[in-house]
Design brief:
Shape of chain A: globular
Structural class of chain A: alpha/beta
Pfam families (chain A): DUF1501
Organism (chain A): Algoriphagus aquimarinus
Largest sheet of chain B: 7 strands, mixed
Largest sheet of chain A: 9 strands, mixed
CATH superfamily of the domain at 59-217 and 304-482 in chain A: Alkaline Phosphatase, subunit A
Protein name (chain A): Tat (Twin-arginine translocation) pathway signal sequence
Distance between the termini of chain A: 59 Å
Strand content of chain A: 15-25%
Number of strands of chain A: 17
Domain GH29D-like beta-sandwich (chain B): 484-543
Number of helices of chain A: 14
InterPro entries (chain A): Alkaline_phosphatase_core_sf, DUF1501, TAT_signal, TAT_signal_bac_arc
Structural class of chain B: alpha+beta
Oligomer: heterodimer
Radius of gyration of chain B: 46 Å
Number of domains of chain B: 5
Chain lengths: 484, 709
């Protein structure tokens, strides 16, 4: 209670301070610095911007982002480099490495021996794309996806790189991509959050994911990602306590809203109305979520499609199935994270296990969306935060090696939602180290995703602390070659 | 030393020099031929102009100081400042008049020029008549201040462009142009010229005699030649100039001004290459054309609908928590309608859509229970193109209604049973571009029939899973604890209800015929391991899954470690070994004790309260992380002051790196008559040759030590 009294006092002081300040002409300038929207009619300007969204007819209505956290090796998945097998153990030429900085994990290494893929590669589909043997199901849908082999990023460590991919900045105070889309386009289905998050963990060396990755940043709290857990309560704290009826709950929410509206009038803090909206949403989610997570009505072919793991809550396969159900129900952005792709050592062993966990379900998601006629309006993205080095971390053994972080070139794939299908985009050099053709920066990727959703990345902005922010920061261009 | 009064008289006389020169240049106008060095004076106009503005405004302020007449020394400061301002005004006006000869023309220039002259004349008059009635002076000073500001504003308009000052607060809404209507010049090229060129090539400032603010100017070209010649890069000055190196004097836009981006360069070049037309529409270019590809992204291939938009309020009203109605994009009259939420679906609400029946082009009712709902209303949706009815329990009559919707291009009826009559009906839907028929219970023969009937349609029958046999997933073992004291209940389950679970408790792998079938929870009272596998029809048996359970019978009264564990892996010290909490194998950082340089030597004392017969050690193995079985495990008992070895063991080392796992190592004691026991785990001194770091020291990780009688 003491804290509240103190805060109340501070609020009054702040008001007094501001009202005194407003006497001086200087306070106008100061005021506009402190409250950037003081003179710009924020509400109206923002409203006008929101009305203009989407900027044009969207190709995709929804996104499912299958984030492979830890950075899967491109050299054991989609970027086939036979030269590395031929020159196994030879030193990475200086001319190729150039000025690339290294992580602390291999910077002290005296030699950088090239290492080729432990797995065999083959060409698939009409696009004749090279795919490694540990992704047989992905190979089966290769003509429905677009593999981008020329991704590059600015960061070299997991957390900044992940944050960069999600928010457009390496420091974690900006809204996530899903929050931006929730802000820009809202939810299709008002009974479910526009931005949902699902986590799973593989059997390889893992890296953490933190809630800042699905944070709303400076946007309204209603745009925060809602995490679905694998426990009995998929969304925590959603159930009514025992013996509380629906109507009692309704009454309670109405009365809380009344009180909140009173303090809204007093303090005019937008977070208060966000809170009211969240209570409302949670009330509606009480019926919508159980409908969503019930997989008992799925036909058996679905179980076979995603693999039996999809029946085990918390697995990647179960999350893919849930992602399809959420997306189909109008959730704008479903963000999956699958941990365990950080193969600094023991790569041949661990990467196979990781691929086993994700390959079938990822491919299944594409097939499943397609057979419902939903793939055309749903954009699916598969990929990690950076790539892995073409040289070995530690010593090369006959069947064991590891790879360090590599931000200069890596592969992801996209499917549906207006992306060209059956295409391989971009190229890297024979060493798989540098991009030689059509580089796609993380900001370009983000601009393209927004474009597919009908948004001009340069025009969807939010003014905060005196400047306008956007997902793509101050760069990024739409990669039109990727768009169907 | 000059006195103030002599400075004043010099300044007063120079004023007349400026007046004279100004009159000459103003009156003689363009007939004068100015020497080159004067151009330098002219070009210093933008620097000079700051002096008169500041000095004059400052001088003017002094007229307003109350009681200034009684303070001659303060009045003096004001007057001198004003006089200096007048002089600078004269010089600035002269420089401006010279600069105006260069390349400036137009309305703003006229305003600026005459504004400057008025200011100069006005300030001279005000200076010499400063002694007259204070009110008149003050009134004139306001008028002069306004004239100064206005002149300055026009001048700024000449250099920075007309809207420079107020641009940041003017609305910058961009009109979205549909691709079908976009013009190459008007919508692609001109915006670039507008942003990067026009500020110097427009009415009022026609550099190089080139006006770019209207098409005639562009067609006419400039002093050095034609602006563009269709398809001719050599002779098109636009292309020449923008491609010169940035340091070249003729490079455009000039150095220090906003440069063209790579994309803009490309667009301009491609425009010239494609004929430099001023009227052509973008869509008339072939799709492969570089310019088309570059520019088409800026506009959207939005389909244009000719029907009228529905009332915005109606649309808003129709949006409910179970129904979403949205325009395809903000300006489009076409609507996309989706229903969500099975439990909240009122079939009656479908009739609400009557008021937007002409506007609905996409309609999704996926998963809504439509059994018995009359779908005839769909026939009123004149512009319906896409209909999604997956999993909606449609019957043949409803399918018949759907098959008569002849505007449909996309139809998804996956998850509904399609019978023979419906196949015949669907076969008539020639307008369909895409048809989704997954999970429709159609035979392969039916599929062929419909494929033949609709050769132009992309039909997706989806994945049926027939003939594919997968491995079942492993059963799930659930037990309240790993380490228990009395008895433990172990439950086995499998997400597929029909799966059969078989298990063993003796450490062997279960098989599909002889191993025990799980029917009810298992109760155990010892230390051991349960291994389970699942089997089901149409599936391969699962991989085995296992879980250890440890019975903890007795606890020593005292225990201590001879050597501390490694400081990075010390958990909660020796107490960790007896906390009855099994640590997670995937996280060796927190609850495991790690030893590398020193062996683990644990001394325990039962103080005669109980006798240990069996010792179980819970160990972590993770070869890739250098965590190996101990080289040697030994148990010693204290007998008459000396330690006597009671049991020892050298566990087998894996020949390759396996994933992180927890193993139980059990030793039996033959003689139980010892109160004090010493357990020693010696880490492997050299990692095996196959390891990535052969020869290094291995680690031993322990999390529990359990004694049983």
């Amino acid at each position: 209670m003491e804290k509240e009294i103190l805060e109340e006092g501070l609020n009054h002081n702040r008001r007094k301070f501001l009202s005194r300040l407003s006497l001086g002409v200087g306070s106008l300038a100061l005021g506009s610095l402190l409250v950037p929207d003081l003179f710009s009619g924020k509400a109206e300007a923002e409203e006008a911007m929101m009305k203009a969204l989407p900027h044009f007819a969207p190709k995709a209505k929804r996104v499912i982002y299958l984030f492979q956290n830890g950075a899967p090796s491109q050299l054991e998945s989609f970027d086939y480099k036979p030269l590395l097998n031929k020159r196994m153990g030879e030193e990475l030429p200086e001319s190729i490495r150039g000025t690339q900085r290294l992580t602390g994990m291999t910077a002290g290494q005296s030699s950088f021996p090239l290492v080729g893929s432990h797995y065999k590669f083959d060409q698939y589909g009409e696009s004749r794309a090279w795919i490694s043997e540990v992704f047989p199901h992905t190979a089966g849908i290769v003509d429905d996806i677009c593999i981008v082999k020329s991704m590059h990023t600015d960061a070299i460590n997991h957390d900044p790189a992940l944050t960069f991919f999600q928010t457009g900045a390496q420091v974690g105070n900006r809204p996530s991509m899903g929050s931006w889309l929730s802000y820009g386009l809202g939810s299709e289905n008002s009974n479910l959050p526009a931005f949902s998050v699902l986590l799973s963990r593989g059997r390889g060396n893992g890296q953490g994911v933190y809630s800042k990755l699905w944070s709303n940043g400076f946007l309204d709290a209603t745009h925060q990602g809602v995490q679905f857990s694998n426990s009995e309560d998929p969304v925590l704290y959603l159930k009514d306590p025992e013996s509380m009826s629906r109507s009692e709950r309704r009454k309670m929410i109405d009365q809380i809203a009344e009180m909140n509206n009173l303090s809204m009038q007093q303090f005019n803090d937008p977070e208060i109305s966000a809170k009211v909206k969240q209570y409302e949403m949670a009330y509606r989610m009480q019926t919508a979520v159980p409908e969503m997570t019930d997989i008992s009505k799925e036909p058996e072919s679905i179980i076979k499609l995603y693999g039996p793991d999809c029946l085990v809550p918390g697995t990647y396969a179960a999350n893919c199935l849930l992602a399809r159900k959420l997306s189909e129900s109008g959730v704008r952005f479903v963000q999956l994270y699958h941990q365990g792709w950080d193969q600094h050592g023991n790569l041949p062993n661990e990467m196979r296990l990781q691929a086993e966990d994700v390959d079938q379900a990822s491919a299944a998601l594409i097939t499943d969306l397609k057979q419902r006629g939903l793939l055309d309006e749903t954009l699916v993205i598969w990929g990690g935060e950076f790539g892995r080095t073409n040289y070995c971390q530690g010593k090369i053994l006959v069947d064991n090696y590891g790879r360090d972080h590599h931000p200069r070139a890596f592969s992801i794939w996209m499917a549906g939602g207006g992306v060209k299908s059956g295409m391989v985009y971009g190229e890297t050099d024979e060493f798989g180290y540098n991009i030689t053709e059509n580089p796609v920066h993380v900001h370009d990727f983000q601009a393209t995703v927004l474009h597919l959703m009908g948004i001009d990345h340069e025009r969807m902005t939010y003014k905060h602390l005196g400047r306008r922010y956007r997902l793509t920061d101050v760069s990024g261009k739409v990669v039109k070659d990727l768009i169907a | 030393m000059f006195k103030i009064s002599s400075i004043r008289s010099i300044l007063e006389s120079t004023l007349f020099v400026w007046i004279g020169l100004t009159l000459i240049i103003t009156l003689a106008g363009n007939s004068l031929v100015l020497p080159d060095w004067l151009q330098v004076v002219g070009r210093s106009h933008p620097i000079l102009l700051h002096f008169p503005i500041v000095l004059l405004l400052m001088g003017l302020l002094f007229f307003w100081i109350p009681g200034i007449d009684k303070k001659p020394e303060i009045r003096e400061i004001g007057e001198i400042s004003f006089l200096a301002g007048c002089n600078f005004a004269g010089i600035t006006v002269l420089a401006g008049l010279i600069l105006a000869q260069e390349e400036y023309t137009g309305e703003i220039l006229t305003w600026h020029k005459w504004g400057g002259l008025v200011v100069f004349g006005g300030c001279v008059l005000l200076y010499f008549f400063r002694a007259i009635q204070a009110n008149i002076i003050r009134l004139s000073s306001v008028a002069l201040a306004i004239a100064i500001i206005a002149t300055g504003h026009w001048g700024a308009g000449l250099t920075h462009g007309e809207d420079f000052l107020l641009a940041p607060i003017q609305s910058n809404e961009i009109e979205v142009i549909p691709l079908a209507e976009a013009e190459i010049f008007g919508d692609v090229v001109q915006p670039i010229l507008q942003a990067k060129c026009i500020s110097c090539h427009k009415e009022g400032k026609i550099k190089g005699e080139l006006r770019m603010d209207h098409i005639e100017g562009l067609q006419k070209g400039g002093k050095s030649g034609p602006f563009v010649l269709a398809g001719d890069f050599e002779k098109s000055l636009l292309i020449q100039r923008i491609n010169l190196p940035e340091d070249d004097k003729k490079h455009m836009p000039p150095k220090n001004k906003a440069q063209l981006t790579e994309e803009e360069l490309l667009i301009l070049s491609e425009w010239v290459a494609s004929g430099a037309s001023f009227e052509q529409k973008l869509v008339t270019l072939p799709a492969k054309n570089e310019l088309y590809q570059l520019a088409s992204v800026k506009f959207e291939g939005n389909k244009i609908y000719s029907f009228d938009a529905a009332d915005k309020e109606d649309i808003q009203e129709l949006n409910t928590s179970y129904r979403s109605i949205q325009a395809l994009f903000p300006e489009s009259p076409a609507l996309d309608v989706s229903y969500f939420g099975i439990s909240a679906f009122p079939p009656k609400s479908l009739s609400d859509l009557k008021i937007v029946k002409d506007q609905i082009v996409r309609f999704s009712l996926n998963k809504m229970p439509l059994a018995g709902v009359d779908l005839k209303f769909l026939k009123d949706f004149k512009h319906l193109e896409e209909l999604q009815l997956n999993f909606t329990d449609l019957n043949a009559d409803q399918m018949k209604v759907i098959s008569e919707l002849n505007t449909l291009e996309v139809l998804a009826i996956s998850g509904n049973t399609v019978d023979q009559a419906s196949i015949q009906n669907l076969a008539k839907m020639k307008s369909l571009k895409k048809l989704y028929l997954w999970e429709t219970a159609m035979s392969s023969q039916d599929q062929e029939t419909i494929k033949k009937a609709l050769p132009e349609t992309v039909i997706d029958f989806g994945f049926d899973g027939k003939g594919i046999i997968y491995d079942l997933n492993s059963p799930i073992i659930s037990q309240a604890e790993m380490i228990y004291q009395d008895s433990l209940e172990i439950k086995l389950s499998h997400p597929i209800k029909t799966a059969e679970i078989r298990y063993t408790l003796d450490g062997t792998e279960p098989d599909s015929t002889s191993s025990t079938i799980y029917t009810k929870p298992i109760f155990v009272t010892n230390t051991g391991k349960v291994i389970a596998k699942a089997f089901a029809k149409d599936w391969n048996g699962s991989k085995p899954t296992e879980s250890v359970f440890m019975h903890s019978g007795i606890k020593p009264s005292e225990f201590s470690l001879v050597y501390e564990p490694n400081s990075k892996y010390k958990a909660s010290g020796p107490a960790t070994l007896f906390d009855l909490e099994k640590a997670d194998a995937s996280n060796h950082g927190q609850k495991w004790l790690g030893f590398q340089d020193e062996p683990m030597v644990l001394e325990v004392d039962f103080k005669g309260l109980s006798k240990a017969k069996e010792i179980s050690l819970s160990l972590l193995y993770n070869e890739a992380a250098h965590i190996f079985p101990p080289e040697k495990v030994s148990v010693q008992g204290l007998e008459n002051g000396t330690w006597k070895t009671l049991a020892s063991n050298s566990p087998a080392v894996s020949t390759k790196a396996l994933s992180a796992r927890s193993e139980l190592l059990t030793l039996e004691l033959e003689n139980t008559n010892y109160d004090k026991l010493k357990i020693t785990l010696t880490p492997l001194a050299h990692l095996p040759k196959w390891h990535q770091n052969p020869g290094d020291k291995a680690w031993v990780f322990v999390d529990e030590v359990i004694f049983n009688q």
